[in-house]
């Protein structure tokens, strides 16, 4: 028996049946049909039963609830959850089940979704007993979809129409096959077997391979338009007394890096309150060391609502969930590396619009040339700051993951899943055209 918290998901999986195809749907769904590969539960639901077994990772059992959204932040909350981004594989799976253009006929599908929980399956290689066998990650799945279950579904386009979600940075899956034992990560994305498959990850490698970046989930998952709109109103009306905010950890060592520069500048500026800029506080440092903010959005969302700019320095890797928390709060993101967002999320945050909704300050200028972030940000005219914030608010719906089963009004707004699906269909279409030309 699976644990009780899995039952709702299993039930939803069972009730997906052939949608009755009306004429309207027929037209609306042209070139958008998706087929979901049938996988035995060892590739998804069974993996959740071991949620308490990875001591060095975390006990992730609480994050599984609500189809991966996690527990509500408090009992009467409808939109706010203690969401762990690693659960996006579940969230996406659940959302795909309500995608209007599902088909049971693989031959009419434009794309084939593989409901494999890649990042959760990776835990045994990353944190568990199989650390020295990470080159095996994915081979069982490949055997299943290539040889066991209806091989013709793969063979039709050599897997070029298949896609899956990997709710971690691609770096965690790109260990060269020859590194044994590995330094870090599995070799899933290095396997030739999966070169043709599109992988949606939180962070892509610097060179474009088979993966594409999609937003980290935040904690906000509105079930209807009224709750969504009231949040947007709050964001727009919020009084922003703080010029800039950094929510995060690190920067405490003496090695020069941008987090350290931010920490120093922030400590300095609290003594430097200068009302003439119209801010009562130039910098707010929300200390999120030791993961204290991860499942506690109140800690950083309230301060973000009160800040004009939110600093997004790279950490262990260039991208951060905080970028999307900031956009959700209407706080203009400040990037220090192109890889932190501009070269990642082309579908959700169009590359050409970065100047309109974000600030870019090269980290070298801050760390080695003494450029002060406060000086850059205070030199931006207030009217321009307001325009940028409006643009951030315009982007907001594109980066949220609305709640599964939400109202029709809410579904009419394209969210992160809708945009990821659109992008995937487009990408697969051009892939197939290229392959056929060759
Ligand atoms: C769960 O963990 C046990 C013990 O480590 C292992 O034998 C089992 O295969 C795991 N189950 C899944 C579905 O990974
Ligand atoms: C929240 O709901 C649970 C279950 O209904 C209850 O046990 C708990 O006391 C409630 N907590 C608060 C703070 O109301
Ligand atoms: C992996 O290999 C290293 C070096 O060969 C060894 O020290 C370590 O104990 C192995 N880890 C596991 C979990 O077997
Ligand atoms: C990937 O596609 C190419 C053709 O584009 C094909 O030659 C190759 O066999 C495919 N790989 C797999 C594992 O199916
Ligand atoms: C801190 O403030 C002093 C005095 O304004 C200034 O000279 C110094 O460069 C500042 N340090 C940092 C790291 O901003
Ligand atoms: C505040 O900043 C302005 C402009 O840089 C400067 O002229 C003024 O002297 C500052 N006031 C204080 C109290 O530091």
From TrEMBL:
Localization per Swiss-Prot or TrEMBL: Golgi apparatus membrane
Pfam families with a match to the protein in the record: Exostosin_GT47
Domain Exostosin GT47 intervals: 33-368
GO molecular function: glycosyltransferase activity
Domain of life, source organism: Eukaryota
First and last residue of the signal peptide: 1-22
One Gene Ontology term, aspect cellular component: Golgi membrane
Keywords: Glycosyltransferase, Golgi apparatus, Signal, Signal-anchor, Transferase, Transmembrane
InterPro entries for this protein: Exostosin (IPR004263), Exostosin_GT47 (IPR040911)
Membrane topology classification: Single-pass type II membrane protein
Family under the similarity heading: Belongs to the glycosyltransferase 47 family.
Protein name in the entry: Exostosin GT47 domain-containing protein
Protein source organism: Daucus carota subsp. sativus
Taxon lineage: Eukaryota, Viridiplantae, Streptophyta, Embryophyta, Tracheophyta
């Amino acid at each position: 028996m699976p644990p009780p918290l899995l039952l709702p998901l299993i039930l939803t999986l069972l009730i997906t049946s052939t949608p009755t195809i009306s004429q309207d749907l027929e037209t609306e769904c042209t070139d958008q049909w998706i087929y979901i590969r049938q996988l035995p539960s060892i590739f998804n639901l069974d993996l959740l039963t071991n949620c308490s077994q990875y001591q060095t990772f975390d006990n992730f059992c609480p994050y599984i609830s609500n189809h991966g959204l996690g527990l509500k932040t408090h009992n009467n909350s409808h939109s706010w959850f203690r969401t762990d981004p690693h659960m996006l594989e579940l969230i996406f799976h659940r959302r795909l089940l309500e995608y209007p253009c599902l088909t049971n006929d693989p031959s009419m599908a434009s794309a084939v979704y593989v409901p494999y929980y890649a990042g959760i399956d990776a835990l045994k290689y990353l944190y568990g007993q199989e650390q020295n066998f990470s080159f095996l990650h994915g081979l069982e799945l490949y055997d299943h979809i290539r040889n066991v279950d209806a091989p013709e579904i793969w063979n039709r386009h050599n897997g070029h129409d298949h896609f899956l979600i990997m709710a971690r940075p691609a770096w965690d899956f790109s260990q060269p096959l020859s590194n044994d034992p590995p330094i870090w990560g599995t070799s899933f994305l290095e396997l030739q077997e999966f070169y043709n498959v599109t992988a949606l990850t939180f962070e892509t490698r610097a060179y474009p391979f088979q993966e594409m970046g999609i937003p980290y989930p935040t904690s906000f998952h509105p079930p209807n338009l009224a709750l969504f709109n009231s949040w947007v109103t709050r964001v727009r009306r919020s009084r922003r007394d703080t010029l800039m905010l950094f929510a995060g950890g690190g920067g405490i060592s003496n090695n020069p890096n941008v987090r350290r520069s931010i920490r120093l500048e922030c400590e300095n500026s609290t003594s430097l309150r200068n009302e003439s800029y119209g801010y009562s506080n130039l910098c707010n440092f929300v200390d999120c060391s030791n993961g204290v903010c991860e499942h506690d959005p109140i800690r950083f969302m309230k301060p973000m609502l009160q800040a004009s700019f939110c600093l997004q320095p790279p950490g262990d890797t260039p991208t951060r969930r905080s970028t999307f928390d900031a956009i959700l709060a209407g706080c203009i993101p400040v990037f220090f590396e192109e890889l932190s967002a501009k070269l990642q999320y082309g579908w959700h945050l169009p590359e050409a619009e970065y100047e309109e909704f974000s600030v870019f300050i090269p980290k070298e200028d801050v760390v080695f040339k003494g450029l002060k972030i406060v000086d850059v940000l205070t030199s931006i005219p207030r009217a321009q700051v307001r325009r940028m914030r409006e643009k951030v608010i315009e982007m907001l719906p594109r980066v949220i993951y609305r709640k599964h089963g939400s109202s029709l009004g809410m579904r009419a707004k394209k969210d992160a899943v809708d945009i990821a699906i659109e992008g995937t269909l487009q990408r697969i279409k051009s892939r197939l055209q290229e392959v056929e030309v060759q």
